Protein: Signal recognition particle protein
Organism: Roseobacter insulae
Amino acid sequence: MFENLSERLSGVFDRLTKQGALSDEDVATALREVRVALLEADVSLPVARDFVKAVQEKATGQAVTKSITPGQQVVKIVHDALIDVLKGEGEPGALKIDNPPAPILMVGLQGSGKTTTTAKLAKRLKDRDGKRVLMASLDVNRPAAMEQLAILGMQIGVDTLPIVKGEDPVAIAKRAKTQAGLGGYDVYMLDTAGRLHIDADLIAQAAAVRDVANPRETLLVVDGLTGQDAVNVATEFDDKIGVSGVVLTRMDGDGRGGAALSMRAVTGKPIKFVGLGEKMDAIETFEPERIAGRILG
Ligand code: GDP
């Protein structure tokens, strides 16, 4: 569907005669292509603009390296600048889960992949890190969501907190904490209720749970295919609840990964994991290199 940016840039430069340094005009021509490619990859306009400006400053007047073509050189500058924005502090995928039992709060809109991601992460913690994990669903308005987590738990061999009808989310969170302590769990994961849109009720509920659980990590799950919406959701959740990291789901889809760039540029929050499918193993640590490659095409 998309033209390949690397090829497009090389094409632009092949038409120009070789000079000793990248001229303003060369760079301007190339950066028009970069801007279009970013917008096609669903990067938001202000982010694309700022990014292009930063690249322009880096590229202008840079001596042309003998071994690579000017086109390749601009692609490299763009690539390195993408990595700079995409990579957060710390190791990607690292979670603060010392001092057991460590609470992890999972938040996000309904349909973002929150419950699936909760189970995927629990499985990962169990399989890769040898952790004992307890999962609890706090979605009291949707019994089906509670059942879904219990079924996933059985599939992956991770315990879920037994469902008690009529309990409110705060009471469930407290019971999960007690159970995690008594049962010798390393981690307990609280899968909060999702809604289709952020509303005061959703935020109040998540905040109340946060206050009793005092989570070591609050992970926001957002659909990576929703582009700018994903960034707005993240900004709002972070303002109201505080988010320690983001999980971008559906990165196996057609999207070009632009949401990741906007997410980092706008919220500054680390993207810790990406979801790459519906299966329980389809989660990976976020790799800036990979996303940069995808945006560049
Ligand atoms: P929740 O409402 O946020 O808890 O969303 P669910 O966890 O129920 O997920 C909604 C749908 O998205 C389910 O059909 C999941 O299998 C699917 N899903 C979740 N994560 C991914 C992902 O990374 N890639 C794809 N392709 N589908 C996903």
Summary: Strands lie at 102-108, 133-137, 159-160, 187-191, 217-223, 245-249, 271-275, 283-285. The pocket of guanosine-5'-diphosphate is lined by residues 108, 110-116, 194, 249-250, 252, 275-278, 282 (CB under 6 Å). The mean pLDDT is 88.
